[in-house]
């Protein structure tokens, strides 16, 4: 069935790729060994560092985020190494599964998937690990499956307090470019990112931001791998080149996308996401529904997961929204399957796109026969209106 | 100031050009005398006829709609000819001004710019013109400045009843492809269209659909012109070519755009526009504002003009919406300047885009301090939801 | 039949549109009454002036070049006015035909279509016109049908010597942006240009560069027209807007295209065209064929028309080239039909594209059984090679 | 320095991406878990099989070809396994290096890098391996660094004759879609491909075509990896989905690119490449230079590597060509560094593009002061002309 108008892609990534980023990629592929490519490569590499907020190195892989997860572990660790993993949701769970496949021994700190990483438990585990068997602590900054963020700074403090030498590895796949994150300031050793969320690019690029300590660990890691090898990358990167053929056209887009982030200003970008998230939560509450994240300090700026009323299928609801309203919402993953739907409000987004999105949720709830009160959209609009001037003044000031 | 997300282009044209139409135009320009061009030309010419609903000829000009207005008059009439023109709004008024410049003598039937053409007055004027001095009756099907349509079928009946030989000329610039229109069935002699509204193309093409009677008149018209000449066009068009260089890349887009209209189905397209117009009017009334068009039978499916409360500037309101909410609304034109704003809901559009649009109006009214009641958006959503299933069922049936 | 690889579009326009110009147009259409549009409009208007080399005004029409021809005459002249027209080829002939349709009285100075305008004859005609009945002198700067240029400076001198007040109107449709041209320096009153040749844009825009004297004449011209009206345009243009909907997306491209011309440098652009023209002529001579233009001082930098040996059809040859070699060459027009083929070497072009083009001609001559000597390409390559360093040094200096 | 016209990208990949393939990718990214994506995924997966000529499975990775090399080895083998590798050039050498990193034990059969794999030596090695310690034989079908192909069918016969159970793994990165290759017919177990050569896509996708035997081996392989895991991929692929986010926009392009290959016809595509390769070799010989590949049965249809005369730097020559002629040629790799240049004539290519390319080489040789005879281009043109008709007739028949 033909669906007129623009599709509302409101999953928590891939996000809407801005027209000028798409057009930047819609250019002839160039010789990746030419002088012109070196200029592009250096620009791409320096651009991406500003988003991770690191003065150190960022590796760019022609790969999905899953590849960058593997790269982080494969470069720095050795089979049999113990890793402390915080299972805050489905993606943390998948990272753990990947670690198992690589022969690592994950020690898991669980949550109920409705909050951030349990920093107290992490601290306790580190304190208990007097033999320093734990080689890395792995945390997902923004759990895409739950809409809960974790306090990375506090995790670093826990490591510091325990005087524990483990590496700190953080997944920012769905927070990079949408939620405040600081690789260097927060003392992260390996940050794992992807292109298709806050960076507003199609999928196909992923990243490892690496600390000096991580590189030193890599020199000793004994895991067998080649594609993910940091040192070869960094050697070639020093002149803007890559050891194997890079995803050239995505690099064109990367430069354009980071330019956009800075044109808006990273802090403005982050504030925009927080404001849209708050508007969304107000809508959810007005509908009489429940936000999955139960701890406000962990609310995500990038997405909001919403619990369905008992006895109602989230997927049936999402199907109605998709078919009748031309909008994609995120599904519940893993143990949350069919129990939540997720509203992505990240990337290249604005107030009226959010209003359209929340309108679609409100219409869909009614069309799908999900018990709710109307007025969610109205609540969101009031908040957006009340805070619109403020945002405007702040920008003018 | 950087504005994230997609701009809401809610003027009554140019409208949003669909991505695949833009991409169809983003192709190398071809030799306009090559055999491949002939194939394209024939396809473009036959495509556009289906939208005018004519088995006759449609001329495609590389020009704006204003050019096609001039072409309609210049081909068929002679200096000093009397033309009966219905001044339903600013565009009708501009067409009259153009007629004056060409040396024609417009006899004007006015309205208050809040309704369609006055068919009774047209009928009376035709009856009174026993000498048949009136050579053409000119009506704007959808007045883009007011959001009022005119009853073309009734105008034709008036001509018939009066047994008057005048040509019937109709401007469908903002109704073509968005509001039901039938060049042949309604006995129109010259229909004037443009690319940038319901056809979902950038501006740069305009059209004259011409009846046999119009071509016969053209053979006798003594106005001096060359670019607009129908006969040279039709001669070259017979094999898919043009007498001078056509706007090749817009023709690529034309074929793609008409394919889209038929993929959705013209009747479905028209019903969609009517439904969105009704939803918009419900919002307007719920805000306590007034729809400019005061006669429901003339409501436009393509746009809704809204009267501002006394003492409030429509342009000040539009400026707030533009700056703070990244949406363009249409301004009041001519005697309506600063007194109305116009909401375009035509072209490549859907429910959630309309919801975003009306959200922007509601937020803007508050931000600009325009007295209104909230709840307009809610009223629109209810209507859209209530009618969504029906639309769906109808399509499934 | 599927044809792999890039088509060689070697007609003398439309020319190859550079990828970044195509991409600049592949952007959402904007509100032509928004503040952002005003910025774009001013930029487009000031950009195009630099290519005409005028400090005065340039009108941008959403129309083909034929429209701009009409605009030049319709604004400044009155029915019955005498115009001195130099029939240097098919396009000059078409301009004359257009003048006749507008009720003007062309006095024609003919050539054999193998050279530039006959300046002596122009001078004589002006001297003879003591009553100043001639209101305008019309010359085509670069005859696209013959590959002969005319000496505009000399025509101006002829007007000056005769102390004749006629306007000087020049068609630069196929020379603008490819052959040196100076609207102000050469004292031209109306210069007529188009988008699809040296400007490297798709067709759909055309131009009138107008002198103060031309505007004064326009104030008195009595021809009936509206679309082409300069004064309304200039009034709106002063703030970057247009009196009717402009071809927005082509304006995006216009800005990008002019930026390209200046990135290369206009003088470098002109020298490149001359060098490619000379290489082409060397190839033609080495094949034992004849360049149509018989007077070297009128050789065109934009295209080269080549005479076919007697008894051989240029169109049959062109068909072979098109079908078997995926290249479009220009056909003979008017009295030259089937007797010449035209090689376009203008626009976004370089040495290797020319080498591919001339290879296609040489292969095509053999495939089509046209008597010739081989070695034309070799001769061109030698010239290109010999002059390559010089060009390089000059740029480095 | 600004370089007008189209860059000649004549490296042996990445190749020129056709405009419609670029435009197919220049579309909004979609939800990779939506029903629409499932349709796309199935189409992409079935499309790519036709190019590998397999009825079995093809894995699509969001990764470079290097990743697909790793995937082939990591899925099927275990650390310590012996692999017979044919070092036919730099890429074979890099694959060996990768195998070493994965803990495999390569047994290397060398060549002088001027011919295909030594099948007799492979046969002997397999015969000698009575204990079947060799688990896989790895051959590069088309060595991108040398322009020599290897006889895969003969290698399979050697395995058969020796009744050896080793897997046959073949790299077709630069032959897929440009040189005849048959995964099933030739009994290959794992074929490794990439997107950026004969497939005419940007880099970013790579492939493993896998036999039933290879999947059985994978069930037993003990190498630690996750991203490359075939079984998870195939499980998700069965409904058109992927276990992690795929490179969506490249998949759009993949479907468009394979459609192009079939529109031309795979056999026609292969014949075109062979014909262009022969034309290139004739040019090389006429210049008095030497084709690197010394055994005609191993000539590559995709590229031609050319030996520089002693004492002349290939890189200095390439730099002249790049700077002065706007063309990229491939450099010598590994032990061939600075001694050869490589002409890519693969992908979306035609006669006149080849003529432009060879013109650039001939001009560059002169500009760089490399001793040679002129006339190479002439020789190529003669061959292209003589064979043009035949090709045409064959297509018409």
Automatic annotation (TrEMBL), chains A, B, C, D:
Q: Could you tell me the keywords of this UniProt record?
A: Aminotransferase, Pyridoxal phosphate, Transferase
The answer to whether UniProt assigns keyword Cell membrane to this entry is no
Q: Which residues form the Aminotransferase class V domain?
A: 12-327
Cofactor(s) the record lists? pyridoxal 5'-phosphate
**SUPFAM superfamilies, A to Z:** PLP-dependent transferases
Q: Give the GO molecular function terms.
A: transaminase activity
The superkingdom of the source organism is: Bacteria
| InterPro entries (alphabetical) | Aminotrans_V_dom (IPR000192), PyrdxlP-dep_Trfase (IPR015424), PyrdxlP-dep_Trfase_major (IPR015421), PyrdxlP-dep_Trfase_small (IPR015422), SP_NH2Trfase/AEP_transaminase (IPR024169)
Which family does this protein fall into? Belongs to the class-V pyridoxal-phosphate-dependent aminotransferase family.
Protein name, per record: Aminotransferase class V-fold PLP-dependent enzyme
Task: Output the lineage of the source organism.
Answer: Bacteria, Pseudomonadati, Pseudomonadota, Alphaproteobacteria, Rhodobacterales
